[in-house]
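Um, can you check?
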Amino acid sequence: MNAHQAINEYHRIRIARAIEVFKLQGFSAEYFESASEAVDHFFSELTAGDVIGYGGSDTVSQLGIRQRLSEGDFNFLDRGKFGHSYDEQLDIRRKTLSADVFIASSNAVSIDGALVNIDGDGNRVAGLSLGPHRVYLFLGRNKLTENMDRAIYRARNVASATLAIQLGKDTPCAKTGVCHDCASPDRICNNLSIIERCNPAGRIRLLFINEDLGL
C-alpha cells in the first residue's frame, strides 16, 4: 500500500465510524469513494416535479451540482443566480424552506454525531432544521472532526474565517484567520446550529465523500 492509498484508507475508517453513529441517531448516511459517485447518486434520487432549494455551498458549486441544476430541466430555486436583488434573493431563500429537496454541505461534522453549521442570514441552518422534505448534505472528508468541540472550532476558525477572506469581508478573522467573536457589521457567523438527531428519521441524508471538498 502506497502513501496515497494509506491516506484514503485512514479517511475511510474515520468516515465509517461517523456513519455508524449518525445512523443510530436517525440520519441516512452513505459512503462514496469519489465525488462523482455521490453526485450520480443524488441525481438518481430526484423525481419529476421536485422543487429543489440550495443552501449556499462551495462544495455544491465545486461538484458542479448547482450548474447542472441551473442548466437542466429542474425546478431549481437558485438563490445565487446573478441579477437578483437582495430582496429577491431573500424571497428565494424563504421559498427554499418549503422545497421538496434541499442541498448544502456542512461547516463541520463530528465523528461522535453532530452537524455544526454557522450562517450569516440563517437560511441554510433553517433549511437543515425544518421545512424541506429531504435534505442532502455533501460532506468532504476534510469536514470531519473527532468531537463536537473540535467541530465548533472548525466551523468558527476554519470555515467561517476562510469564507470571510473569500468574500473580502472587513472582519478580524479575515485578517488573522482566527475567530474573534466580533461585532463587525461584516460579521458572517450570526447563527450557530448543532444538530445531533434527525427527526423524522431519514430526512437528512449525509453523503460522505473520501475527497477534500469545500472550505
User: Anything to note?
Assistant: The CA atoms of residues 32 and 214 lie 16 Å apart. The chain has a mean pLDDT of 95.
